[in-house]
Design goal:
With about 110 residues, the protein is an all-alpha fold. Helices cover about 65% and strands about 0% of the residues.
Length: about 110
């Protein structure tokens, strides 16, 4: 019996809906924010100031999206990977399970 139910780790719907399959964006934000703070144990005042600055940046990004500016695009390598993986997932009905899994594995690197 798996530790977590399959709907928590299964990426099928994420691939079909073109939503993130990883938390890399969150980790990237966290690393960037940590570099912005640049102190392991900042004072409360400094931390609040950095959080307010980050909030302002977030609001600016939202306003740009509302104004019609396109969100940043993924690197071509990752766009191509997403497209290939979607092709494999959309062809699920025409493949046996081992072929489907091999197709997915060819598009996933660890």
């Amino acid at each position: 019996m798996p530790l977590f139910p399959s709907d928590l780790w299964d990426c099928y719907s994420a691939v079909r809906n073109n939503t993130p399959r990883t938390n890399n964006a969150v980790e990237g934000w966290h690393n960037a924010f940590a570099r912005t703070v640049a102190i392991v144990h900042p004072s409360l005042e400094k931390l609040v100031s950095k959080i307010q600055k980050e909030q302002d940046i977030g609001r600016l990004k939202i306003e740009k999206l509302l104004a019609g500016e396109a969100p940043p695009t993924k690197r071509k390598r990752y766009r191509d990977l997403d497209e290939r993986l979607l092709t494999v997932v959309n062809d699920y009905e025409n493949r046996d399970i081992p072929s489907h899994l091999r197709g997915c594995c060819h598009n996933i690197t660890l």
